[in-house]
Structure formats: C-alpha cells, structure tokens
Amino acid sequence: MDSASFFRDKSLGADSPISGLIALLAAVDALSHLEAIDGFNKQLVFLVFTGEAWGYLGSRRFLHELDLQSDAVKGLNTSLFEMIIEVGSVGKGFNEGVTSFHVHTTGVSSATNKTLDALNHAQDSLKSRNISISSAAASNPGIPPSSLMSFLNKNPITSGVVLEDFDTIFSNKFYHSHLDDSSNLNSSSIVAAASLLARTLYVLTSDTKDDSKSALASVNVNVSLVEQLMGCLLECEPGLSCELVKNFIAPSSTCPSHYVGVISDEPSSTPSPEYIGDVSRFVWNFLADKTSPPKGKTPVCSEDCSKKGGVCTRAEVDGKGICVFSTTRYVPAYSTRLSFESGTWNVLPPNSSDPMGMHDPVWTESNWNAIGLRVYTVQSAAYDRLVLLGGIAITGGAYLAIILTRAFVAKILKQD
C-alpha cells in the first residue's frame, strides 16, 4: 500500500499499488454485506502490506513474525494457507469499453486450478459489464514484482495468483513516479477488479451449490465507495479530510502520502497516531469494522474489549471508540535483520537459510521533523543598476564629506 518516488511526499502510487488496495477494500465491503458470510466453509485472511517498495519489508516481516509465533499473528500458520490471491495494479484495465485483466500464476496446482475456475465463474456472472480475464503469457519469466514473491521464497510450492492490468509489459509508464496520480487511473477498472475479486472469493469460500449466478448477483461492489476512496487516498481535495476517513480516524494532514515512513521508537502492534501514518491507521480501522459481525459491536470501548477478543476502532474520533469483535492485527514493517532491545536497535547478521535475507537492506534516513528550503530571489537588472549607482553616489558623497571636513578642521587649527 506504499510507493516510492524521487520526492517522498509525492509518492502517491495511484495505479501501483493503491488501485489494488482500493479494489481490495471495496471487495471486503461487498462481502461484509452478505447474510451468507457466516456460512463460508473457508476462512478469508486479508493482508495489506507496507514497505513492499523497499525490499518487501512488510510481507517478509509478516512471515518472520509467523515463524516466531508472536502475539500479533496468533492463530495464523503458513501451513494453513491454501491459496494466495494478490491484487496488483488494476487501475488501467479499461480500454475501448472492455475491462481486461491478466492472471499471473506461480505454477500448476489443484488450488490454482480451483482459483482460475472461480475467476472464470465470476467473470461469467459479470459478462454484462464487459469484463475479460485471461492467463498471462507462458513466456513470462515468472510472476511480476509482488508480495507473493516473499511467500514463494519461504515456501516454493505455495499456490498463488496475481491479478494485474498488464500481461508481459507494464501498462503503467509512471511506475514508482510522482506522476502516478489519480489522472493515471480509471475508476471503472477498479470497480471491475473489486467485483471480480469479491465474487471469486465468494465462489471459493461458499458451498458449490450456492455459487449460482443468482447468488453471485447479490455480491455487488459499492461504486460510490470506490470513488470516495480514490478522492480520499489520492487527492488533496478532499483528501484525508473526507468524511469516510474522518469516520474512523483524526487525520494529521489533508494530503495523503504513501511513503513507507520510518520507525524511530520501539515497534508496536497498536496502530497509534504517534507512530503510525494516517493511511495505515485508516485501513486498519476500516478492515476491523468491515470484518466484524454487526451484532457484536459495543458503543464504547473499555478495558474488557481486548480481553473479550475485540479491538477498539474509531477511538480517535470521539475518544470513546467502538469495540468490535475482529481479528484485525497490526504488524510493523521493518527489516528482518533488525531487532529492538532495551531501547536500542540492533543489526542482526544475515540469515544464510534465507536467500533474500542474505542481501536484506537496512534502510535508514535522517530524523528531520520537517525539511526546509531557503530561497533567494534574483533581482532585476534595473534594480541592480540602481543599487550600483546608489553605492557610487554614497561613496562619492562620503569622500566629498571627508575632504570638506579635513579642510574645515585644517582651517580651524590655523586660526588657533
């Protein structure tokens, strides 16, 4: 959910990767309104990573925490992951009335085949919207740059697919550039990707007898929500001051920035405003709200909320918050070669068993609170000439005053 560019405050990453993030959030929202969600026979885990533009920090840290079995990932295990579906760049799939997507796969497996069948089933239910999906070319050297690479590095036989708006060549010519802004997107393409994802997940998690076209027709993406998210996450107006964001958090700024940010203190699994950026806190609150049952929400958060398996959302808005029963977690993204002990960061030696860890970058930057710039204006030529003439006049006047003063003093001394 973050991007990189020459100017860190201009890292919008509209198509790569925010279009995929918006599609995911819209799909989660669509599934949250289904009455049949309690009858799903498989568990869905939604992951949103930060730091992927910097050596896949988020996904690699997540997998590292799974190995450590830390509290932040309690209840999850990589051996339970049957299939990974990643939503990549999906904002430029619309062309001449047809929205086209390409599915990049890790190989052939029963889980992959089931997912491809589910995607085709979802596509059939969306034929009236002119949505087309196709498998990526076999000539591709592998999957495109994605978080799925971290999972494959951990377990090469992991089944996974990446949904993209391109096949062999990036369609986003502004990839990791400050020019990758909202004008580089098509909202219809994001809506189509969200619809395809939501219905595919419905097919994969529900009973086969309940994945008919009539059942899939009940899975609908809120187009207004997609447009709201685009305005909130990619524009300065309304930006993070939009009602959707302000319903969940109290943003510290208006213009969104998808720069990964820095960790200066002890990493915390609590997304507090002091340490976590606005966008990350909003996404965390949004997912916690959408993945919780509506009947389990308590108007005011209390100390018993976490003890009962709940999390406190919207606490920044009114200071009270809402206790929802959700397993939404927050895992700080930083290098697996870093550890924080006794108030100090330590750099660990490379892990020889981890090919990516052998060259794992440890990114650092200054701790400036604000970057300042002092600008000196260039005066006009006429002003420079005026200053020069003024200087000459003052110099001449001073010289004349000295001569007259000396003559006057000499005359007074002679009279004495």
Mind sketching the topology for me?
Elements: H1 14-32, H2 57-68, E1 84-87, E2 94-95, E3 98-105, H3 110-125, E4 131-135, H4 148-154, E5 160-164, H5 187-205, H6 213-216, H7 223-234, H8 243-246, H9 278-290, H10 304-307, E6 311-313, H11 315-318, E7 322-324, E8 338-341, E9 344-347, H12 381-415
Parallel strand pairs: 1-5, 3-4
Antiparallel strand pairs: 2-3, 3-5, 6-7, 8-9
What overall form do the CA principal axes indicate? elongated
Q: Which percent bin holds the helix content?
A: 25-40%
CATH topology of the largest domain: Aminopeptidase
Main sheet, how many strands, which sense, barrel?
A: 5 strands, mixed
Order of H and E elements:
HHEEEHEHEHHHHHHEHEEEH
| Oligomer status | single chain
Low-confidence stretches: none
Gyration radius (Cα, Å) is 29 Å
The whole-number mean of residue pLDDT values reads 88
CATH C-level name of the largest domain: Alpha Beta
**Count of helical stretches:** 12
Given helix and strand content, the structural type is: alpha/beta
CATH-defined architecture of the largest domain: 3-Layer(aba) Sandwich
Total strands: 9
What gap, in angstroms, lies between the N and C termini? Answer: 92 Å
Strand content: 5-15%
Number of domains: 2
Brief overview:
The chain is an alpha/beta fold. The protein has helices spanning 14-32, 57-68, 110-125, 148-154, 187-205, 213-216, 223-234, 243-246, 278-290, 304-307, 315-318, 381-415, and strands at residues 84-87, 94-95, 98-105, 131-135, 160-164, 311-313, 322-324, 338-341, 344-347.
